[in-house]
Amino acid sequence: MTQPPAPSAKDKLIIFDTTLRDGEQSPGVTLTANEKVEIAKQLSRLGVDVCEAGFPIASDGDFEAVERIAKEVGHLMTGRMSPTAKPMTICALARAVPADIQRAYDAIRHAPNHRVHTFLATSDIHLEYKLKISRTECVARAVAAVKFARDIGCNDVEFSPEDAGRSDRTFLCTVLAAVIKAGATTLNIPDTVGYNTPEEYGAMIRFLVDNVEGAKGVTWSTHCHNDLGLATANTLAGVANGARQVEVTINGIGERAGNTSLEELVMAIFTHPTAYPVYHTIDTYQIYHTSQLVTKKTGMVIQANKAIVGANAFAHESGIHQDGVLKNKSTYEIIEPAVVGIPSNSLVLGKHSGRNAFRTRLSEITRNSIYEDAMKADASMFEKLFAAFKKLADTKKSGVTDQDLFALLDDQLNVH
Ligand code: KIV
Ligand code: ZN
């Protein structure tokens, strides 16, 4: 475990990953069921508490993917290095209508821990132009949806007032109090269009925590979009004001400018352990590998200057910076790359590289991963990988990248 053991004064922060749902809503991204299962397995290794696997009513393919994740991944332990290890909760999204909720529940119910996440817009803009319903009707539909989910046997029900960031605060209190009474256990507050600033979003969470009736015992959750580049800052403001679940995606992928990025949020908390009174079970060593896997499967290339996982995130160009880092890394590095699983040496692998350099790189990028376990289990595997690497290096002029190495591992090891 890369975080210190949880001091008893700290609350658990639930990490809800929506890479496979909101992340898949990134323009141009479609994942197959196999790819979703593979990513979900890696999310459980990473230590995610809740995996939002998809939106089953959207297509038969998505239903099948969510159902397979519930059956094949739902029993896997998450946060396995922490004393609170448990099977990852598998969640599915549903609009606030019975057919959606039934379909979501049918897909997830095979997992030991499962959750239905239902949503309905609450902002006047959405009520008037999209749904064409009154506020009274909105409350009635939200309550009916949560009741329906509970009545068909789902005990873990999350409700989201879509576009909460632009909704009237008093009306939000009315809707949320009503859905709590109906049986909602998690209240998620989406800034659907990425409109809020950290001050606004933090104040909204504080206002709701303090004013929604009957909220004792429910979990407050953040869900921020990055239209103004503020998703991570808004999420942190939510945590500082009482949220104990964060909805995030790997590499920050998602609708339009994306969602809060898991790696940014986790490392902000890592570097400021006293500012946020929470602990979590993310194994930070898994971050780079997970990021690379999501890049490969979604085809969404990470911008070079992306925080934590971008190619330049730990690169130093100017002479002054290089001089400082050579003298002492802490001069210009706030995180050791190895803590997020990024190889700390800059050896370029190519056809002249020997076993030692190859072994070093491989062990750095696979530390604590599913690949490491598989390589340990097969003594002859290293030589097979080395031979495959040499073959590739002979044909690749630009050097062999970490992406190439992960592809070799996928080819040679039957891990997923
Ligand atoms: O951004 C949003 O409002 C959502 C909801 C469905 C939670 O993704
Ligand atoms: Zn969203």
TrEMBL record:
Enzyme category, top tier? transferase
Keyword Zinc in the entry? The reply is no
* Residue ranges of domain Pyruvate carboxyltransferase in the record: 13-288
Keywords assigned by UniProt, alphabetized? Amino-acid biosynthesis, Branched-chain amino acid biosynthesis, Leucine biosynthesis, Transferase
Q: Which GO terms describe its biological process?
A: L-leucine biosynthetic process
- What does the record give as its pathway? Amino-acid biosynthesis; L-leucine biosynthesis; L-leucine from 3-methyl-2-oxobutanoate: step 1/4
Q: Where are the transmembrane segments?
A: none
Highest taxon, organism lineage: Eukaryota
Enzyme Commission designation: 2.3.3.13
* Listed GO MF terms: 2-isopropylmalate synthase activity; methylthioalkylmalate synthase activity
Family, according to the entry, reads as follows: Belongs to the alpha-IPM synthase/homocitrate synthase family.
- What name is this protein filed under? 2-isopropylmalate synthase
Q: Please tell me the species this chain comes from.
A: Geranomyces variabilis
Its lineage reads: Eukaryota, Fungi, Fungi incertae sedis, Chytridiomycota, Chytridiomycota incertae sedis
- Which part of the entire protein is covered? 1 to 416 of 665
